[in-house]
Design a protein that fits this description.
Layout lengths: L2 E7 L5 E7 L3 H9 L4 E6 L28 H16 L4 H9 L5 H15 L4 H6 L7 H13 L2 H56 L7 H15 L1 H19 L2 H12 L5 H21 L4 H11 L3 H15 L4 H7 L5 H13 L2 H58 L1
C-alpha cells in the first residue's frame, strides 16, 4: 500500500505533518477530515527522510494560490473549513488566517485578508462580508448575521456549506446530463456540413461531365450545397448578429420577461423551466428559514437571488401579502405559479412549526424531478437524433447515387 506525506491543521490552527498509508489520496483526505483536521497538502512523490520536507515548501507559509478567479468550489471549501474551525473553538480571526494560507484562489486570498483587516477595525463578520457583494451574496451576509446574533455561527455556516454543496452537485448533474446530447448534436451538425460543403460538390463535378438530366432530388441537394458554400460566411455572420441582437434584447427588462414567459410556455420544456425556478426558491428558503432568518427577510433575499424576473415579481407580491398578515401558503396559492402540493406542504409546515423542513422536502422532490426529466430526455434524444440523422443523411446519399444508377443502367443498355 502506498505511503503519502500530509500536512494538516488541527482545530486550534496548529500545523501537523507526517506519513500515512492509504490506497489513494482521496481515502487519506477523507480519513484525516473525519478526525476534524483541515487538509493543507498531500504528496505521494516524497519519502521519509527527504530534506525537502519543509512546511513552507509544501503548502504552509509559502503556499501559492493556483488561480485568480473565485469558483463555487472555492467558496464551498472556505465555508466548510470556516465552520469546522469555529466549531472547534478557534476564533474567527485565527480561522480566517489559517484558511488564507491554503486557499487556491488569489482573489479569495485577498478578500479574506480584507475581511481580517475590516474586522480588526471593528466591523462584525457580516458587515465585513457585505463589502464584497460580488463574492458574498445577500444569502451569505444574512445567514452570517443570523448566526452572529444567535451565537451559532458555526452551525449556520455548516448549513450554508451544505446548501452550497447541494447546489453545486445539482448543477454538475444537470451539466453532465446535457453534455451527451450537445456532443451528439454538434457531431450531427458537423457531419451534415461536411457532406453539404465537401462531398456533394465532388459528385456535382462528376455529373457535369456526363451531360445528363439529373433527378429532382439531386438538383435540390446540389443547389442547396452551392448556396451554402457561396454564402457560408454571410450565413454565419447573420446567425452571429441575430444571436447578438437577441442577447441584447433579452438583457433588457422587457425582453427578459418576454423570453422567460416564452420558456414557461414551451411544450414539454415549459414545466421543466418552471420547476427549476421552484427548486431554487425552495432550496434558498429552507436554508434561510432553518438558519433563523425571519420569513420576510428570507423572501426579500430570495427575490433578489432567484435569477428570474417573473419569479422575482411573484416573490415580491408574496412578501407584501405576508407583511399584510396573510399566511405564506395563502400567498403562494394566490398567484398560481406553484403546484398545489407546494401550497399544501407549506400550509402544513406553518401549522406544525416545521416550515424549513417542508421547504427542504420540496427541494429534494423537485431535484429528483429535474434529474428524472433529464435522464428521460437524454434517453429519448439519442434515438430521435440518430433517426433524424439517418433520414437526412440517407436522403442525401440517395440523391447523390440516383444519377449513378441511371449511368449504370445506360451503360448496361
Amino acid at each position: 500500500m502506498p505511503k503519502f506525506f500530509y500536512i494538516v491543521r488541527d482545530a486550534k490552527g496548529n500545523k501537523n505533518m507526517g506519513f500515512e498509508e492509504a490506497t489513494s489520496p482521496e481515502e487519506l483526505t477523507a480519513r484525516l477530515q473525519s478526525k476534524g483536521l483541515v487538509i493543507v497538502n498531500i504528496l505521494s512523490d516524497v519519502k521519509e527522510g527527504d530534506k525537502g520536507l519543509k512546511s513552507e515548501n509544501l503548502g504552509g507559509g509559502g503556499f501559492k494560490p493556483r488561480h485568480y478567479r473565485i469558483s463555487g468550489d472555492d467558496l464551498v471549501l472556505f465555508c466548510r473549513h470556516l465552520a469546522t474551525l469555529l466549531g472547534a473553538g478557534v476564533t474567527i480571526l485565527k480561522s480566517l488566517d489559517v484558511i488564507s494560507k491554503q486557499v487556491a484562489s488569489r482573489r479569495l486570498y485577498q478578500v479574506i485578508k480584507d475581511l481580517e483587516k475590516n474586522m480588526e477595525a471593528g466591523l462584525s463578520f457580516h458587515e465585513a462580508m457585505a463589502k464584497h457583494p460580488s463574492v458574498f451574496s445577500d444569502l451569505w451576509v444574512n445567514i452570517v448575521e443570523s448566526g452572529e446574533a444567535s451565537g451559532s455561527l458555526a452551525v449556520v455556516l455548516n448549513r450554508l456549506a451544505s446548501y452550497l454543496e447541494r447546489n453545486a452537485s445539482f448543477r454538475r448533474k444537470i451539466i453532465s446530463a446535457l453534455i451527451y446530447p450537445l456532443i451528439l448534436l454538434a457531431a450531427g451538425t458537423g457531419a451534415l456540413l461536411f457532406l453539404t460543403i465537401k462531398i456533394i460538390p465532388t459528385f456535382a463535378q462528376l455529373f457535369e461531365g456526363f451531360k445528363m438530366k439529373l433527378p429532382f432530388l439531386t438538383l435540390v441537394l446540389i443547389r442547396v450545397s452551392f448556396f451554402i458554400r457561396s454564402y457560408f460566411l454571410v450565413l454565419v455572420g447573420i446567425v452571429l448578429i441575430a444571436l447578438f441582437l437577441l442577447k441584447r434584447y433579452i438583457s433588457t427588462p422587457n425582453g427578459r420577461r418576454k423570453f422567460e414567459k416564452l420558456k414557461f410556455n414551451l411544450p414539454l420544456f415549459g414545466d421543466f423551466f418552471r420547476v427549476l425556478i421552484i427548486e431554487r426558491f425552495s432550496s434558498e428558503m429552507s436554508t434561510l428559514v432553518e438558519s433563523g432568518v425571519p420569513i420576510l427577510y428570507s423572501l426579500e433575499i430570495t427575490e433578489h437571488s432567484v435569477d428570474n424576473l417573473i419569479m422575482a415579481d411573484i416573490v415580491r407580491k408574496i412578501k407584501e401579502d405576508v407583511r399584510e398578515g396573510k399566511s405564506l401558503s395563502r400567498a403562494l396559492e394566490r398567484y398560481g405559479f406553484f403546484d398545489p402540493m407546494v401550497v399544501q406542504m407549506i400550509s402544513i409546515g406553518e401549522e406544525i412549526g416545521e416550515l424549513s423542513n417542508m421547504f427542504k422536502r420540496l427541494n429534494v422532490f423537485y431535484q429528483e424531478y429535474v434529474e428524472t426529466f433529464l435522464t428521460r430526455f437524454t434517453a429519448l434524444f439519442e434515438p430521435i437524433m440518430l433517426l433524424f440523422m439517418a433520414v437526412v443523411i440517407g436522403t442525401m446519399v440517395i440523391g447523390m447515387f440516383l444519377p449513378i444508377f441511371q449511368i449504370a443502367q445506360l451503360g448496361g443498355g
